[in-house]
Design a protein that fits this description.
The protein is an alpha+beta fold. It has an eight-stranded mixed β-sheet, with helices on one face. The two termini are 31 Å apart. The longest helix is centred in the N-terminal third of the chain and has 15 residues. The protein is globular. It folds into two domains: 146 residues, Aminopeptidase, CATH 3.40.630; 190 residues, ph1033 like domains (ph1033 like fold, Roll). Helix 8 packs across helix 9. InterPro entries: Acyl_CoA_acyltransferase.
Length: 352
């Protein structure tokens, strides 16, 4: 994870005396011994500017039974969330960690993922429940056990429940253009090879899987929940679009609303909140001017493993060069399927 504020480090490289671990040592008997026994295993970590830990995610690939849980686990391969801890600091880091573990579950074909939490960890429980984890049972120490099954729903209206999978059957497909200056900050895993020096920062609109996009394009008003968006990064200044502009990302529409539906400015600001790249001052200006009245809330599902340049969208995917406006347009299912095929999207992400 080069140039990313989240890094993979071995347990043995971490300082157990860091105040970050104090609550874990207090809550979990034997935590210190367990931690020291994992010295050669890796975890996802995030440090603040002072060099202190602010986030720690440890995952385990296990295939075993567990009778300490009621009801028990039968023999099955699962992705265990061994440790998931964040010192809250307003940047929605939990979304980023959750995205890492769910994508690992899908990419590596785990049947289930599970996490154990104490009832007092209400905010963490709410986050897991929002993204499809459900209460399974409990352990003797009153820890609750939540699981998320890696399965395709017959039809699930709540797209969060099966995130990061996306439904190609019950959806329309569109291409949405985004400027380079916004693109990579909103979609950090969709960086181009030419952006290898881009630093992924600990920012709320980078971390959250819920992205807010404001636009003046009137046609986006037709978007419905569950529709799919191919994110198209426009060309950088001075570069030829044919070879520099490209499709990079798949997103799912949560909703599309008009700025005029908000009762007041504060409710508008709260809605855009963590998911918008714009500053509060800029958002206040947009509220006054109504410059960008159409607002899209979308989930950042997956990056294309192979970015598709504009030339190949025409010559390989088959999109028409006669499309009048490349900022936003609807495409047929066949074109969308070709994009995810050429883009190398893991089929496990696709509900069809």
């Amino acid at each position: 994870m080069k140039n990313d504020y989240i890094q993979k480090k071995k347990f043995g490289e971490l300082d157990l005396s860091d105040p970050f671990f104090s609550s874990l040592i207090a809550d979990y008997q034997g935590f210190e011994g367990w931690f020291l026994s994992k010295k050669n295993q890796e975890a996802y970590v995030m440090y603040n500017d002072k060099g202190l830990l602010q986030g720690f995610l440890s995952l385990k690939d296990e295939t075993e039974e567990d009778s300490t849980i009621v009801p028990g686990f039968d023999l099955k391969r699962r992705l265990k969330v061994s440790t998931f801890k964040i010192d809250a600091h307003g940047t929605v880091l939990g979304h980023r960690f959750l995205g890492i573990l769910l994508k690992k579950m899908i990419e590596e074909n785990f049947e289930e993922a599970y996490v154990t939490v104490f009832p007092k960890q209400r905010k963490l429980i709410e986050l897991f429940e929002k993204f499809g984890f459900r209460l399974w049972g409990k352990k003797a120490d009153d820890e609750l056990v939540y699981i998320r099954k890696n399965e395709n729903p017959i039809y699930e209206e709540d797209i969060y429940k099966y995130y990061p999978k996306f439904d190609v059957v019950n959806s329309k497909k569109y291409l949405l253009s985004i400027w380079p200056s916004f693109h990579t900050k909103l979609f950090p895993d969709s960086r181009l090879v030419t952006e290898k020096n881009h630093i992924v920062e600990d920012l709320s609109f980078t971390n959250t899987v819920e992205k807010i996009y404001l636009t003046g394009i009137t046609d986006v008003a037709k978007l419905k929940p569950n529709d799919l968006l191919v994110i198209y990064r426009t060309a950088e200044g001075g570069k030829v679009a044919e070879w520099n502009a490209c499709a990079t990302t798949i997103c799912t529409v949560v909703e599309q609303i008009n700025i005029n539906t908000f009762e007041n400015e504060d409710k508008f600001l709260k809605y855009c909140g963590k998911g918008s790249i714009f500053t509060e001052s800029e958002l206040r200006s947009f509220w006054r001017t109504k410059k960008y009245p159409f607002i899209i809330k979308m989930l950042y599902n997956v990056s294309l493993s192979k970015r598709i340049v504009r030339h190949d969208l025409f010559e390989k995917v088959g999109l028409s060069r006669e499309i009048p406006y490349f900022g936003f347009f609807e495409m047929d299912n066949d074109y969308f399927k070709k994009i995810i095929e050429i883009g190398g999207v893991n089929e496990s992400f696709i509900i069809n």
